[in-house]
Structure formats: structure tokens, C-alpha cells
Amino acid sequence: MNKMPKWADAVLIPLISILLAFFFSGLVIWAIGKDPVVAIKTMVDGAFGSTSGISYTLYYATNFIFTGLAVAVAYHARLFNIGGEGQAMLGGLGVTLVCLAVPWPHWTLALPAAMIGGALFGAAWAFIPAWLQAKRGSHIVITTIMFNYIGAALLGYLLTRVLKVKGSMVTESARFPEGAHLPNFSEIFAPLGINFSPNAPANMAFFVALLCTFLFWILIWKTRLGYEIRAYGQSETAAKYAGIAPARIVIIAMLISGALAGLMAINNVMGEAERLIDNAVEGAGFIGIAVALMGRNHPIGILLAALLFGFLYQGGAELSFWESIPRELVVVIQALVIMFTGALDNMVRMPLEKIFVALSKDKKKEA
Amino acid sequence: MDYLTILQILDSALRLATPLLLTCLAGLFSERAGVVDIGLEGKLLAAAFLAGAAAAVTGSIWIGLLAGVLGSLAFSMLHGLASITFQGDQLISGVALNFLAAGLTVVIGQSWFKLGGRTPSLSGDGRFSEWNLPFSDAMAKIPVVGPAYDELISGHTALTYLAFLAVPLSWWVLYRSRFGLRLRAVGENPGAVDTAGISVVRLRYSALVIAGVLCGLAGTYLASLAAGFVKDMSAGRGYIALAALIFAKWRPWYALWATLLFGLLEAIGNRYQSIALGDFVIPVQFMQALPYILTVIILAGFVGKAIPPRASGQSYVKER
After folding, report:
1. Number of folded domains in chain A?
2. B49: distance to nearest CA of chain A, Å?
3. Does residue A154 register a pLDDT over 70?
4. Are B188 and B309 in contact (CB under 8 A)?
5. Which domain holds residue A189?
6. Helix (H) or strand (E) holding B275
7. Residues of chain A with pLDDT > 90: what percent?
8. B6 CA: distance to closest CA in chain A (Å)
């Protein structure tokens, strides 16, 4: 029985949820004695007011597209991958190893190799929880959380003991060779006569993220594997009857998820820092959860949600600079978005369903 | 390593195990009632912040305790609203609460105290005082037993003793009281409990109240131990408690041993930056990761099998 038209389910409910989340975020700003309107203005100015701001917004959005897609792939198979953070960390390790392995002559060669490195390491970090879920029945949420911490410890060890340049005081890897430098927006768009701030971080990885968004759509809705993933996510028993092997789907979905999270490293590690630094992921793996939930696990939704969070992230930085509201405000907004679009879905849905049921009854009476 | 060093490490293990134990028991009540609680971390953090803030302003840790418990309770009720009343996803609600605590504590802390998210440091009555048990000075002179009594058993704060008392108490409540029987039943088969005419919703909410209070105690303990709140001070303890809960297979006495083990690991890691075993040096990062690695091994079922309460994670939809 369909209580609601499709558009209400796909657009209206998320929209109301997000408005609620923003309303409460505004309330928080107001409660700490700041003006929410000024805050929004500062954020919009900071995120879109200059080419540098736009570049930062798109740079953050690129991270969130990757992690959002990662969470969404797993979610289509009803797997809640909280391990995006650790997988992206390990992806950074993979990208670093590839970039430092050879003196790359040109980025066109370095990028595909680095993508393979990042995806491989990210997928490997997702594989163990996936295997444990599929074969031993350990809950993937707990194991992926544990793997975030294990990953952080592993990377901390490798950075201080192995990758750190001898004699250097900072815990970071060596700088990547010139040939592994990804063109940033100012270099890409200069030939077209568009001037981007040369120091801003958005780079080639943004287009890779867009490509991945498209491939995600193909995979989930146009391929046999995508069908199997969705079927498994809808009903494990039905999938089994249809001859789909649950263990295989769990592992494959998680491998793709880990690979996407790992791919994020071509943006933050290869594109921006050009070396592996401590805590390079900066919580982007967790924001992926909010992005996927908000985007309803659909590529277009994820793209929009990632842009929104990119804006929040960049705007939040400006906010701390100009209005002395801590950057953690973004974490509050992120929490509220997850809460309202994820956990409190029924709070919005139940009354709406009643309204639509009442409306359709009225129509029947007239007819 | 001499006797006194061992005692000091064990003593520090007890201190570090206290918040883990309280949080673990919080998770125990909630998950035994069928509500998965990833949000332990957030409750811990929120409680630590409010306790630190209230104690700093009033100068009394007991008022801090009250504030911490109330804050943690509020988070617990929010979790209940999302996962019991609105039958939302318990995991997602827990994740959201963790972020909410991580963000709000800094945003509000900065607005109140302007110290970059910290609270002013606590001293005097702003912290729990250590209880010296009777005769600890006199007994300290007795060899072997004396120092153990003096160093290890005496000289902790009230909350440490309370935490250890909470273990037999939780056992009694869960396994010997009617409430406990119903609580365990609602985590295994809420339908049966409902059929017996007992409210599933009320039972689950009461479990969350207990969990909220226990997390509040644990958070206040953290703020008192560190003499104030610092950003992200729970530092994953909520997740370690969750790990200990699985390690303990959702049983109170096992929870004690699991949290003591994890406390001991942390104490050893704090004392020795790296441990040399012959030519091989165990890096400090390995010690930090060990609780998580152990949990994964336990979860994998290679060392005993951890089976969660059957209905945990599922919201109960009443049949009409």
C-alpha cells in the first residue's frame, strides 16, 4: 500500500528533515548569543564569495562525495559502514606509497596508479570486517569502529617510525615528487580564461569524484551486481531464494565501499597536502554517513549533500575566523542532519502519511 | 620491575577502569533491554563537560555530578525518543548523539568560558577527594599486604568504590529481581513481554534511564580525574566500553574483568612508551590498539562466542 506519492518520499521528507536540522542549528547559534542570520551570511560569503572560497568548498565536497558514496554502497546492501574514516586513512597510505615509489614523470600516469593504490588499501581495510561479518557473523558496525582505531594506531606508528623523513621534526612523510602533482583548479581553468585562486586546493580529484558518482549510478541501478546488492539489502531471505550468495554480496559491497573511501586520498593526500600527514582525513569518513543519509543513498542526492557539507565546512572555517564561533558548529549541524534524516525519519513521516491518506480519502469521496 | 611499581600500575589500572566499568554497565542495561547504544561515547563526553562546567562555576563536584548525570540523561532520552518512540535506527541515532556531544561541548564551552572549549580547571572541592580507608597508614608498614592495601585498595574516589559496588548490584538487579527478568526478556523477545501485558516501551526507557545515570557518573569521574573538561576528553572510552561489553558477553561480572583488563592495558601503555621483549620492541601504538584488536578477535568467535541479546537493535512495533 502506498500511503504517499513518490515525490513526497524522495524530496519532501528529506527537505523537512533538513529544515528541522537547520532550525535547531540556528537555535544553537542563537543560544550562544550570536545572530544566526549574520552567521549564515558569513558562511555564504566565505564559501562562495571568492574563487578561493569556492575552491575550498569544492575541495571539501570532493572528500565527502567519495565517503558519501562509500557509505551508500554498503547501505544498499543494508550494511552500516562506519569505517570510512579508517578506510580513507589507509587509502592515504596506499596513495603515499604509490606516489613515493617512483619519480613520476607526469600526473596522468601518477593519478591512475595512485587511484589503484588508494582504492586497494581502502578495500583491504574494509575486507576484514566484511569477511568477519559474512563468515563469522560479527557485527560490521562494531568491527568497523574498531578498525578505525586500529587504523589510526597503525598509521601513527608508520608515520613516526617508517615514513617520517630522517632528522625531520614533523611527523609526516616525504613530499611527493613534482610529477605526482595534480593540477588544481587555477591550472585547469586558466586556459579557459577563468581565474581561480592559485593557492586553493580544489583539483583534478573533483572530476574523478563526479565520474565515480556516475559509475555508482550505473553500478547500483544498471548492473546485475547492483541488482543483487539491492536485492540483498531489501531482503536477505528473498535474495537467497533468488540464488544470490549473501556472503559474496556482503564482501563485494564492502570492498567497493572501502575502495571508494580509500579513493578520497587522491584528493586530500595527493591533491592537497602532497604528502601524508597525521590525521589527514579530518573526520570526512564520518561526514560520509551524514551525506549518504541526507542524499538518500542516491548519487544525485549524495552530490548535493556533499556540496552542502562542503559549504558548511568552508563556511564553518570562516565562521570561526570572523564570528569566533568554533568550527565544531559544523559537527553539531552534521549531528542534527544525521539525527533528523536518519533516526527521526518517522517523526516527519508519520504525520505526513496521515495528511496524504486524508487527502486521498477526500478525493475518493468527490469521485 | 619491583613490587611497588607493579602496585602503582595496578592502582592506575583501577583508576582507568572506573569510567570504563560504569560506561560498560550502562551499555549492559541498555543492550540487555534491546537498545543498542553506540552513543555511550557521546553521553560520556556530554556528562564530562556539564560536570566540569558546573563544578568550575559552583566549586562543588557534587553539583557537577548532578549536572553531568542530568546531561547524560537528556542524551539518553533523546536516544529513546529516536529509537523507541519513533522506531528509528538505533545505530544511526547513537552515531548522531556522539557527534552532537563532540560538537556541542566545544561550541557551548567556548561560549561560556572562552578557553577554546576547555572548562576552567578544578581544584579543592571541585574534584572528588580520595578516600583513605581506615588503618591504611598503619597497615602500610606490614610487608606485602600493607602496601597493597595502602596503594591499591585505599585512596580512590567515591565513584571508584561505587563503580565496583555497581557490579554485584547490576548482577542482582538483572538476575534476581523481577525488573531484571523483564528487562532481559524485552531484549530477547519483546513480543512475549508485550503479550504478558508489560509495556515494552516503559521497560526500554527505564533501561535507558539507568544507562544515562551510569554514563553521567562515568563522565563526571573523567572531569574530576583530569581536573576539568578538555575537548574530546572521552577519547574513545565509550567505544572501548562497548568493546568491553562484547568481550564480557553482556554479563556484569565479566564486564568487571574486561574493563579491568582494558584499564590495565591503558595503564601499562601510559607508563611504558614502548616495551622491549628481547630484541623486539612493542610500539606504544600497538598497546593503544590492543583493546580494539582483542575485541575484533573475540567478535570473530575465535575465542569463545559473543552472542548479543536477540532483539537488540530492533525497534518493537506493537501489533494491532
Report:
1. 1
2. 15
3. yes
4. yes
5. 51-282
6. strand B275-277
7. 42
8. 26
